[in-house]
Amino acid sequence: MSDTDATLNSIFSIEVANLPPIIAAAMESTNASSELKEAILKHGKDFDWGTVFGAIVEKVHELFDMNLSEIMMTGWNKYGLLAECVDEEKCSPGESVLVALAEHSFTSKHEPSIEVLVNEKSTAKLPFTITLTLNLKGAELMVQDKKIREIRLGEVGGEGSIKCGEIDIATQEFDSRQIPGTILLDPGLEIPTIDKPRQHT
Amino acid sequence: MTSTSARTWLPLLLLFAVVPVAAQDERTLYAEHVNIELGEGPKEQPFKLKNDVNCSRPRTFRILLSPSEPFPEKTWFQLLDRAEYELVPPFSAKFELGNPDDVDVYIKYDANQLTPGTYTADFTISCENCEKLKCRVGEKFVQITMNVIAPDAEEPTRLAEEIEQPTEEELPSETTIAQNQETESGTDSTDDGAGRADSQRSGGSGDLDLQSDGGGGDANGGNGGVTNGGNGDDSTDGNGEDANGGNGGVTNGGNGDGKPPIENGLKDVWLPIVALLVILGFTTLYWRHSRGPKTAPAAKFDVRSHVDPGTQTVSPDISDRARPVIRVRLQNTAGEQSVHGDPDVKINKEQ
């Protein structure tokens, strides 16, 4: 997969080595964090809260390391946008097909979580809610051999937010602007085949 | 012995060593702050039952007063803030006590119904679930002796004589707890007839102790002193001292057997302790030899992330508007090949 792939971390500017203090503070102020901290402190000297929180932050980074291309392809594929490209009768092997997408809004909502276990026993869970909305205009996909090889986003705007429990820990708005260049996917994202619904006779 | 067999006998040995010691802790039920007042009107004899018995289930106790002389008919047994039980002859009632559960208990009776004289009564608290729950509280009782004197008595009267009452059959290990040795000197006041005499002596006991405070002063004509001898094995039973013009005094004579508590207590205590120490020594050696010196395993924590692939929506539905706009096909064929001349290559091999 290409290094040019965008992830939620890059979109929200989250870096594990330097978690924005405001995000850390927001995370610590959630009810879930307080309960977790309380549970951890019950173990007395066994744990240092700073160490535990550091491990959580590391997992936060892992959590948001979701590939945007894969997320978008999942969404597009759900609507059968690329169904024609996996049909060998319409797209012969080796043929490169540039698919132009009409202007649309793409929304992706995720509810991941981080679980802390003490002695293999689940102690607390930090729930996150990630909402990402992208308004795409002039997006194009290059498809070859049932795989998306390139994504040209065209003009993109939108917003995203990350909540930890009930508290917003990060929000990001993107003004609509032309995204230059192409996201190269090597060896490409395979387009899953959509099962056609069975027809009852 | 192989390490396998050692693993088998070690827990058993530990079990035998620990149980007698633990059993002592299970039987910590005692009453403290016994105050007995005699005077006009109904009086109360409060107890605080400290119930630290290591038994998770509530137990039913029976309380029983067995007077040797005519006793006031109006006698109640009350758990403070709870139900009140009237003790009708033979002055017994049942109550339930959870654990841990300290509760104030009052014995109320009308002292005015008593004519001057000496009265004795056995005050018994027994656990009715011992056989079923094996909590081993058993039964404890003290003998209450009351010296009731007339209000106009001129001379202070010695309230109670030392009373020794053999403890009823108790569990063997009950004698191993000797506690609550306490003595306070009394204070008498003879100036105005409103004296206050406190004399307290509590012998330690086994699972169920009655610990007394000195008798409180009465507003009218002085008070009796109180002595509660515990159920322990000590020989000291208190002698209440009278107040000037007091109405009565009460002594709860202990049920000791006349031996110092340390004599009986240590005898039963040191054996399991020594056994435990020996076993602990063996255990330490066993672990050192079998596993070597190790630090205790620290608790460990683990953090897991649960990634959610999420739900994606596209609006508006553009499925019919996504069309391949450019197709690039490689029109590659094998081509035409022709050969001119004789392609047959002869290789002359020189001899």
Concise synopsis of the structure shown:
With 201 residues, chain A is of the alpha+beta class.
Question: What descriptive keywords fit this protein?
Answer:
heterodimer, A: 201 residues, alpha+beta, five-stranded antiparallel beta sheet, four-stranded antiparallel beta sheet, 5 helices, elongated, disordered C terminus, B: 351 residues, six-stranded mixed beta sheet, 3 helices, 17 strands, disordered N terminus
Please tell me about this protein's structure.
The complex is a heterodimer of chains A (201) and B (351). By secondary structure, chain A is α+β, with helices and mostly antiparallel strands. Chain A has one domain (8-190). Chain A is 25% helix and 39% strand. Chain A is built from 5 helices and 9 strands; from the N terminus they run αααααβββββββββ. In chain A, the strands form 2 sheets. In chain A, strands 2, 3, 4, 7 and 8 form a 5-stranded antiparallel sheet that branches. The relative contact order of chain A is 0.19. Chain B has 351 residues and is an alpha+beta fold. In chain B, 17% of the residues lie in helices and 30% in strands. Chain B contains 3 helices and 17 strands. In chain B, strands 5-4-7-2-1-12 form a 6-stranded mixed sheet, with no helix packed on it. In chain B, helix 1 (3-26) packs antiparallel against helix 3 (261-291). Chain B starts with a helix and ends in a 23-residue tail after the last strand. Residues 1-42 and 153-264 of chain B have low confidence and may be disordered. Classes of the chains: A alpha+beta (201), B alpha+beta (351). The interface between A and B is large, with 58 and 32 residues. Strand 2 (104-110) of chain A pairs antiparallel with strand 16 (311-315) of chain B.
